[in-house]
Design goal:
Blueprint lengths: L1 H14 L14 H5 L26 H18 L2 E7 L3 H11 L6 E5 L18 E4 L3 H7 L4 E2 L3 E4 L2 H13 L4 E5 L1 E9 L2 E9 H4 L11 E10 L10 H8 L14 H10 L2 E4 L2 E3 L2 H7 L9 H17 L14 H14 L1
Parallel strand pairs: 1-2, 1-9, 2-6, 9-11
Antiparallel strand pairs: 3-5, 4-5, 7-8, 8-9, 10-11
Length: 344
């Protein structure tokens, strides 16, 4: 009976599909997300500890070192040849990885040169904290169960970090995802005219190539690379700039002046597989197309990331919303499978 239940669960996780916010319908009414802040807060009583005489269990320093090293190296081995590599863990990259991770059969590696993932999504524009998201992108917030203040044509999250921390906590808890932060994508792997992975190095090494002797990089092969490096800057737009330098595309004109209404639509519309094996998403789309910059609104980043995920699914030959299919929702499928086991 246990074997049968396990088989049923595995089959459900790989074959069952349900609706995603990307298909244009809300996962739940926006009132649920809006009321999230008023829900009772669960707490753990401090009485569970003796705070006056608190003492940790003993541990050897070498055990801590071995645990970190062994697990990280295992991840490096696992993701040295993977399904999708997402370069850049800003709002577009995180949204892309989140959407991809709904299919538990896909392994997703995220490369982020900064110690702290999230890019510009920790704050709104000009270091202000609120995040403005134009409708109908708020449906993605409903799916994530993020509270917001609803206006006629847009919603406002009280602090951008609420979006960033929520999507990261949900994404990184999934077993088919690994974030490699403080790691830079220094170059692309290209074989027979197709992008086939990325060349990586520790971010601190990448920043100091001119101050020390050569530190050779590592590699990560992938069936699909999603470049979400952001707008141009010290590290931004590196994916498309590298494509230009090796002759795979002709120009990278850079962003035009700000026009929110034109920019956000254009970013989502032009999110695409720009060369075989490489998809561009987020502000990097504006860089390669010379589209207007969008300013301090974030809906285009979320939906562009979702679209990039479905383009990657299509490239992998898997069901995707662009072709009219929906993507697996592991939590919902798992709950249904567990219910079947209990009933049995």
């Amino acid at each position: 009976m246990a074997t049968m239940a396990t088989t049923t669960l595995t089959s459900s996780l790989t074959k069952s599909y349900t609706k995603s916010s990307f298909l244009g319908s809300s996962i739940k009414p926006s009132t649920i997300a809006a009321s999230a802040a008023s829900r009772p807060i669960k707490s753990i009583s401090a009485a569970a500890y003796n705070l006056d005489a608190f003492k940790f269990n003993p541990i050897k320093e070498s055990v801590v070192s071995r645990e970190m090293t062994r697990r990280y190296m295992t991840d490096m081995i696992t993701f040295a040849d993977t399904d999708v590599v997402v370069v850049g863990a800003g709002s577009a990259g995180l949204s892309c990885a989140y959407e991809l991770s709904k299919n538990p059969s896909i392994n997703v590696a995220i490369i982020e040169q900064s110690v702290s993932p999230g890019g510009g999504a920790w704050l709104g524009g000009q270091l202000f904290s609120a995040m403005v998201v134009r409708k109908p992108a708020h449906r993605f917030l409903d799916e994530l169960d993020i509270a917001y203040d609803e206006q006629d044509d847009y919603v406002v999250i009280k602090h951008a970090a609420l979006f960033t921390s929520t999507i990261m906590s949900k994404l990184l808890a999934r077993p088919n995802v690994k974030l490699f932060n403080a790691v830079a994508a220094e170059d692309l792997i290209v074989k027979s005219g197709r992008v086939a992975g990325v060349v990586t190095n520790w971010a601190l090494v990448s920043m100091n190539h001119d101050t020390q002797s050569c530190m050779d990089p590592n590699v990560m092969e992938a069936k699909v690379v999603v470049s979400s490096c952001g707008h141009d800057g010290p590290f931004g737009a590196t994916g498309v700039k590298r494509l230009r330098s090796i002759g795979m595309i002709d120009t990278v004109p850079g962003m035009k002046a700000l026009d929110m209404n034109t920019a956000e639509d254009a970013i989502v519309r032009h999110t695409r597989e720009v060369v075989p094996g490489m998809i561009v998403t987020g502000m990097e789309v504006a860089e390669i197309d010379g589209a207007p910059r969008m300013g301090p609104t974030f809906g285009a980043m979320m939906i562009s990331g979702q679209k990039a995920a479905h383009l990657a699914l299509r490239a992998l030959g898997l069901p995707n919303a662009l072709d009219g299919a929906a993507v697996a929702q592991p939590e919902l499928v798992l709950a249904a499978a567990e219910s079947d086991v209990v009933d049995a």
